[in-house]
Amino acid sequence: MQNQITQRKNLAVKGFFDEETNTVTYLVWDKKSLEAAVIDPVFDFNNLTGSANTHSADKVLNFAQDKHLKLKYALETHAHADHLSGAPYIKVKTGAKIGIGEGIHKVQEIFRPMFNQTDDDEISDFDLLLSADDVIKLGEMKIEIMPTPGHTPACVSYKIEDSIFVGDTLFMPDFGTARCDFPGGDAATLYDSIQLILSHPQHTKLYMCHDYKPVGRNEYKWETSVKEQSESNIHINKNVSKAEFVNLRNSRDANLNPPQLLLPAIQVNINAGNLPKAEDNGVAYIKIPIKL
Ligand SMILES: [Fe+2]
Fold first, then answer.
1. How remote is the CA of residue 78 from the centroid of ligand 1, in Å?
2. Is pLDDT of 1 > 80?
3. Cα separations in angstroms, 56 against 67, 87, 171, 179
4. Residue range 5-53, pLDDT digits in tens
5. Residue 220 C-alpha to ligand 1 middle, in angstroms?
6. I need a labelling partner for 234 at 20 to 30 A (CA). Which of 3, 91, 122, 178 fits?
7. Contact yes or no for 28/13 (Cβ under 8 A)
């Protein structure tokens, strides 16, 4: 497992892997000012029992506290369908602002009617809706916003120095790319987004949001490079045309099961990870729309 701190120029990166959802949460910080951001924090939720806890987020917070980091932002690469977001908890504990790509409006438009949520429910609590023009500063270090839609319309990647946090675009070279079959997803759009990522210099470090440890590999990994992806990604290396990719992606998506936490995750994550309000018995409920 890639558990070390990765050191770049001013940037330091620590990945936290959640084996339940195969998600990597990143803690990134500016070594001079110690200002920090969390990317894609996880809230632990058991879909079968409804039990929830903050162990994953607490690991990140404890590490940040040990290093005397000042957490300024909790950033989402997109509204995840495979885990609930730990961003609201990070915000309560540290005052960090929650940011996501401005395309989240499109995702909310698709999913809010499905869960009978309305805009005036006041449940959405994103502090920052980010576009390509925005830059977030950690000390003197900059986080650039790269819209990289395709998996969802709201997907963004975060570029810091020569490192890119790619969200659900690419997976490790031996696993391929993210699915595009959720409402608003599009394989041709994902191809273009991945070309944008791969247009960066060969040495650029790429940090994956997930790893599924394919057959033949014994450990989880989440750091790679533009060079490695361009040469050997099994779905989208330099020898694969856009038409070939779209064909491969769509046929693979036709056979994928929905993520286990799809319905809980989406209804919570389009509202910045805020859980539904408790009903008058003091209990909050997750909804499952029934399709007859
Ligand atoms: Fe995703």
1. 7
2. no
3. 17, 11, 21, 25
4. 999 999 999 999 999 999 999 999 999 999 999 999 999 999 999 999 9
5. 18
6. 3
7. yes
d(CA 81, CA 261): 7
Q: 18 C-alpha to center of ligand 1: Å?
A: 14
Cβ neighbours of residue 122 closer than 8 Å, sequence gap 6 or more: none
CB atoms within 10 A of CB 200: 17
Q: How far is the CA of 5 from the centre of ligand 1 (A)?
A: 24
No. of helices (H) and no. of strands (E), the chain: 7, 16
Reported as a single tens digit per residue, the pLDDT across 51-71 is: 999 999 999 999 999 999 999
Q: At what angle do helices 55-66 and 87-94 cross, to 10 degrees?
A: 40
Per CATH, the architecture of 9-269 is what?
A: 4-Layer Sandwich (3.60)
How close is the Cα of 213 to the center of ligand 1, in Å?
17
Residue 233: CB atoms within 10 A of its CB come to 22
Measuring CA to CA, how many Å separate 266 from each of 60, 102, 190?
Answer: 23, 16, 20
Closest CA relative to residue 83, chosen from 250, 249, 264: 264
190 in helix, strand or coil?
helix
Question: Cα separation of 211 and 220, whole Å?
Answer: 6
Ligand 1 centroid vs 281 CA: distance in angstroms? 33
Tokens of 225: 């490079």
Prediction pTM value:
0.96
